[in-house]
Write a structure and sequence with these properties.
Elements: H1 6-11, E1 13-19, H2 23-34, E2 39-42, H3 76-81, E3 89-91, E4 98-100, H4 124-127, H5 150-163, H6 189-200, E5 206-207, H7 234-246, E6 249-251, E7 254-262, E8 265-273, E9 276-287, H8 293-300, E10 325-331, E11 346-348, E12 353-354, E13 357-358, E14 360-364, H9 371-383, H10 389-396, H11 398-409, E15 413-419, E16 428-431, E17 437-440, H12 445-462, E18 467-470, E19 509-511, H13 526-542, H14 544-547, H15 550-555
Helix pairs in contact: 2-7, 2-13, 5-13, 9-10, 9-11
């Protein structure tokens, strides 16, 4: 990998500084490096691309702990080597605030280094969603959330599918052939059984689009670093070639504490690299640290000129936090899955839009975490419950719980339901006085009713199969596909970003992670993040001279 000295990094005025190397950061950084811009990636976590031998691959980080338990700060070194975030997230949603380490990626590739590789397009209807009067957002009822359309996004979807080498088949319900997808492997026996079952019941299954190489011995890894280089994440697909072929530089183990701006122009980032404070300057800044950290960074960057936080004149930074409501179905299929059957292979969208409203997608989940982790998760949930003494009782019967977990979940075909979450202004990310990330998130009655409806529909879909339902939709400890905390829009009073993902308030500051989503859609966000990053990268390159010419450099003191 391309490395230069810290002194040279500080002395250079970078064309583009990208904060975060997940799909949003890696993809936009590659696009701009290919356009000839001098790109610096700043990554808080470790670069496993530089140090694969020292990385923990092939297993969940928890399996490397001295004892199986939920992640705590004392495990930070193990979590870092496993590509996981090791910081605490304080959840203020309940009567009692508690902190936990969320399942979020940190390191080259961000969360994409751990993701399940599903790269699915949003539906045209997702981009046509309109605001309703019962939403706490200041938007007007009937106003469209998305200022871009599916047709505008479509060429970037095609480009992203090719870039990430996505394999799958087209969904018949979409009514369009997706020629940019590569051919997937044949269905395994248990997946084939479920595929045929769904077809016979009148549903429309298809093979899930995955950014996976399916090399010999592929375990279809999710939740941990891949040991076989099968996973096409943003580290391998974007950051590595940006550095090795196009002259970009990667600075890992570096946390951006604040960003500095004056008169509507961002000038520098104040960082901490292995205990040393750095000030790094650039012409354009792209924040892609994730929907938790990007708004937190903007809020931490408050000054007398920007008292609410940077780019926050609308008071919308951190608001409209969304996630997906995900449930897990362990199905007693006739064909017991073998190791290869745990690959994610099938999906169907017949419940995406129903006569009773929008629900979501159903797809293969892959393999559940080891039993030891499942049991530890239950223990921690009880520990943080209103009746924490139950955790002690549970601990006495922990071996028995592990036995039953194996009996229930071993050799089961696993499906997951993913349901859209709509924005709500009171669901938000804030920062504490010490700058730590804090989350407040509640599910309203209407959303809870939709969750119940989805479960009822799934019961009808799967009948007569027996299954065990793992209810995760209501759990803030299992926040999945976080998005929406710096949303795009035409109106500066109700959004943080322009339709081109530039902040309304600061003219050389962009956001390309899932923070920009105005709605969450009802399927996996990775492909939409990648497609949008290509779109934004193209826009920045095309308008470079106009927006980043002598006037901006002069204002930033960069001549």
């Amino acid at each position: 990998m391309n490395r230069i000295s810290i002194q040279e990094i500080e002395n250079t005025i970078w064309d583009v500084i990208v904060v975060g190397t997940g799909i949003g950061g890696g993809t936009v950084g590659l696009t701009l490096a290919q356009a000839g811009k001098r790109v610096l990636f700043i990554e808080k976590g470790r670069s496993y691309l530089n140090d694969k031998e020292q990385s923990f691959t092939g297993k969940y980080a928890e399996m490397f702990f001295p004892t199986i338990e939920r992640p705590e700060p004392k495990h930070s070194n193990i979590l870092q080597k496993a590509g996981r975030w090791s910081g605490l997230l304080s959840d203020t949603s309940g009567a009692k605030t508690h902190a936990h380490i969320p399942f979020v990626g940190s390191g080259t590739g961000g969360s994409s280094a751990l993701y399940g590789m599903v790269m699915e397009r949003f539906w045209p209807a997702d981009f046509n969603a309109v605001h309703s009067a019962d939403d706490s957002s200041p938007m007007r009822a009937g106003e469209k959330y998305w200022p871009v359309s599916y047709e505008q996004m479509k060429p970037y979807y095609v480009a992203a599918e090719k870039l990430y080498r996505v394999r799958g088949t087209a969904d018949e319900l979409r009514g369009e052939q997706i020629d940019s997808l590569m051919s997937p492997p044949e269905l395994t026996e248990s997946n084939s059984e479920m595929y045929s079952f769904l077809q016979k019941k009148g549903f429309h299954p298809y093979q899930l689009p995955l950014a996976c190489e399916f090399k010999p011995g592929c375990k279809n890894c999710q939740g941990f670093l891949c040991p076989n280089d099968c996973r096409n994440d943003s580290g391998t697909i974007c950051v590595q070639p940006a550095v090795s072929k196009y002259g970009a530089v990667l600075l890992d183990l570096c946390e951006v504490k604040t960003v500095k701006a004056s008169d509507g122009i961002i000038t520098s980032a104040v960082c901490e690299h292995q205990g040393i404070s750095l000030t790094i300057r650039g012409s354009v800044f792209v924040l892609a640290a994730g929907a938790l950290h990007t708004p937190a960074l903007l809020l931490r960057s408050a000054t007398s000129e920007y008292p609410r936080g940077l780019a926050n004149s609308s008071d919308q930074v951190g608001r409209n936090l969304m996630r997906h409501y995900i449930d897990i179905y362990a199905i007693f299929s006739k064909k017991k899955p073998q190791n290869s059957d745990y690959h994610k292979q099938i999906a169907f969208n017949d419940l995406y839009s129903t006569e009773d409203g929008r629900l979501g997608t159903v797809q293969s989940f892959g393999k559940l975490p080891p039993t030891e982790i499942q049991v530890a998760t239950v223990y921690q949930k009880l520990k943080n419950s209103p009746l924490p003494f139950l955790a002690g009782i549970f601990n006495v019967f922990r071996p028995i719980a592990g036995f039953f977990a194996k009996a229930i979940f071993a050799d089961r075909l696993i499906l997951s339901s993913i349901m859209e979450d709509m924005p709500c202004g009171s669901n938000r990310i804030t920062v504490s006085d010490t700058g730590d990330v804090m989350m407040n998130y509640h599910i309203n009655a209407a959303e809870q009713a939709r969750i119940g409806l989805f479960r009822k529909r799934m019961k009808d879909v799967l009948r007569p199969y027996r299954y065990f339902l793992i209810k995760q939709a209501e759990s803030n400890g299992r926040i999945a596909h976080i998005c929406g905390t710096c949303r795009i829009g035409n109106d500066p009073s109700t959004s943080v970003l322009t339709p081109q993902n530039e902040t309304h308030d600061v003219k050389n500051l962009y956001v390309t992670d899932s923070s920009f989503f105005p709605t969450s859609g009802g399927t996996n966000p990775a492909l939409t993040i990648a497609a949008n990053a290509l779109r934004v990268g193209e826009y920045i390159a095309a308008t470079w001279e106009q927006k980043v010419g002598s006037s901006l450099r002069s204002s930033a003191g960069m001549q």
